[in-house]
Amino acid sequence: MAERDAPGVPARVLLLGGTSEIGLAILAALGMPPETEVLLAGRDEQRMTAAARTLRCRLRTLPYDATALDAHQALIDSAFADGDVGLVISAAGILRPQQDLERCPRLAGLLIDTNFTGHVTTLLAAAARMRAQGHGTIVVLSSVAAIRPRKANFVYGAAKAGLDAFARGLADSLHGSGVRVLLVRPGFVTGRMTAGMRPAPLATTPAAVGTATAAALARNAATAWVPPALAPLAAVLRVLPRPVWRRLPR
Amino acid sequence: MTATSQAAEGTGRLLSGWGRTTASRARVAGPMELERLQDLVASRPAGGVLARGAGCSYGDAAQNAGGCVLDPATRPGIDVDAAAGTARLAAATTFTELLTRIVPYGLLPPVLPGTSHLTVGGAVAADVHGKNQRRHGSISGWIEEIELIDGTGERRTLTPGGDAEAFRATVGGMGMTGIILAVTIRLLRVRSALLRVTTRRLPDLDALLDALDRTDAPYAVAWIDTTASGRSLGRGIIDTGDHLANPDPAIERYGLVYRPGRARRVPPLPACPVTSWSARGFNTLWFRKAPGNSSEITDLATFFHRLDTIDGWNRMIGPRGFVQYQFVVPDGAHQIIAEVLEAVQRHRCAPFLGTVKRFGPGSGSHLSFPMPGWSLAIDMPAGNRWLGPVLHDLDLKVAAAGGRVYLAKDSRLSRSAFDAMYRQLPEWRAAASKLDPAGVFRSDLGRRVGLC
């Protein structure tokens, strides 16, 4: 009950952020056989159970709060206790309007913990386990927001930039260990998290991110932009002069 | 030094199969003396133990992530009894070494798989077959004796007539019943190391299968154009061969020799050159350039091990590696061959190499692959995201028809499909649990399909 098969489907999967729309969309796109065991780690037990019904796989739920940093080592230990985990998807994340964060810095701290610190504590523990088991894949959900901080959304951007850098460093440190890291950088994803917001150009959907991630796993890619057209756009955004960048409306 | 520290002494290495798809890291050790091997097994190292041969299986059969891998377990060694026509071979002996040594005696391994790089231990663990499976069966039927270290560290000798269940579980058992130390096999006698090979080009699948069915040559194999569709679906080239009845007076005046084909090295390519277009182009050219009907004299390496002449051809497929889908379906279910070809073409899986064989009776070993019927093997680059779902659907068709997928080639079969294909699994489990009660022998393949 261990291995990833050649097209990239593992026998056991751990989704951190068990109700994440994108995380569940990735699981749905993997085309897992019914004997695959899915571990959903999240806060909302009911929603995870409901989500799992659509997956038609063996399911276990684990209580996971991204901000409860002290509990993360124990969570990873319990996920790996019954055998190897071939794929870990780190999908926990929240998004709050920038004005709310500026009004309440404590909330900004919570966002950083959820979107960055919690990923670091869980993924370092998972990476150590995977290094010992000699194989595995870690999927990290970064964002186009990680490329350059925008004044309209810079706390979220800072967390994603930290996560992006962490994932790239982790990938290099795991080189040759049999464990690989796939860094997914979606653009604006329409869904629960962005409900009520005006979609940005090149907006995508959770299902499209799921499909693109499954395809990237199959081709053994290190990075996946969703949609792919974001890659050249990001290159432009990176070099835009700062006075121009500052004036961007969003 | 204790056995436990010997297990820890192995150096961490990333291992992959011939298809280079799912590498995993293990502690690699060996070769070792018999006592040390026995101590190692008895100490039950964390993550289990697996003997690896030459790494010629396509998938994860010779990998054991997080455990110990013996690469190889023993040193090579060949003892020939020319009068009896048998040889005792250490497990790590390769077929190249074996052929070089025994051909001058007028002896030949009864089973020659498509590469000569594989080891004897690996050949027995996968119960390999050759182009003569229909007439001579798989290697199982030629084994007199297997020397094995079982899961308790005890050295045992298995014979077909002794503990028959242990023998049948070990041949084809993919290393999950123990460490094969040595094998004694019966050899074929030949008077020449040359073959007369007849090549014929056939326009469609029916003609190709009919030609394979009708031939009375001991060796027969068909290359199939995996990209041709419509009326040309399944067109191909059939090669049939037999040993010359007498040594060639010009070439073999000073006796019989085996010369491995001169291998040309190819550089590993940074990207996969195989697309559905290039696969089609290559296959069409290959078909067109073949003679309609010809006959020639060739040597052993040219006929049996054509791909060995390109050293490391697997690295030409690019860093993502490739998958081979080899299955067998019983007589009467040959339409599955057409269905499989159509499915991989429809999903643009870029099948670039295909081989069809006619099989005779199986060996009776629990996890052995051959059965009377038709076998098709298709190589496809990994990376297409439809490949997994497409092959899983085909698995269900093959299983429903009573067929199976070859474990030595497999890197992706699901446990449920495996259970449906290998009907002697309960017998295998019963015999394997006697040989390895504590579950010491483990592999990535074994975990994936549920053998350990």
List the helices and strands and how they pair.
The complex is a heterodimer of chains A (250) and B (452).
Chain A: E1 12-16, H1 21-29, E2 37-42, H2 45-53, E3 58-63, H3 72-80, E4 87-90, H4 98-103, H5 105-133, E5 136-141, H6 154-173, E6 179-186, H7 206-218, E7 223-226, H8 230-239, H9 242-247
Parallel strand pairs in A: 1-2, 1-4, 2-3, 4-5, 5-6, 6-7
Helix pairs in contact in A: 1-7, 3-5, 5-6
Chain B: H1 3-9, E1 11-15, E2 24-29, H2 34-42, E3 49-51, E4 68-70, E5 78-81, E6 86-90, H3 95-102, E7 107-108, H4 120-125, H5 133-136, E8 143-149, E9 155-158, H6 164-170, E10 179-186, E11 188-189, E12 194-202, H7 205-214, E13 219-224, E14 236-243, E15 264-265, H8 276-289, E16 293-299, H9 300-304, E17 310-311, E18 322-330, H10 335-346, E19 353-359, E20 373-381, H11 387-400, E21 404-405, H12 415-421, H13 425-435, H14 444-449
Parallel strand pairs in B: 2-4, 3-4, 15-17
Antiparallel strand pairs in B: 1-2, 5-6, 6-10, 7-11, 8-9, 8-10, 12-14, 12-16, 13-14, 13-19, 18-20, 18-21, 19-20
Q: Describe it for me?
A:
The complex is a heterodimer of chains A (250) and B (452). Chain A contains nine helices and seven strands. The longest helix of chain A has 29 residues, at 105-133. Chain A has helices at 21-29, 45-53, 72-80, 98-103, 105-133, 154-173, 206-218, 230-239, 242-247; strands spanning 12-16, 37-42, 58-63, 87-90, 136-141, 179-186, 223-226. Chain B is an alpha+beta fold and 452 residues long. In chain B, α1 crosses α2, α10 runs antiparallel to α11 (387-400) and α11 (387-400) packs parallel to α12 (415-421). Residues 1-7 of chain B have low confidence and may be disordered. The chains are: A alpha/beta (250), B alpha+beta (452).
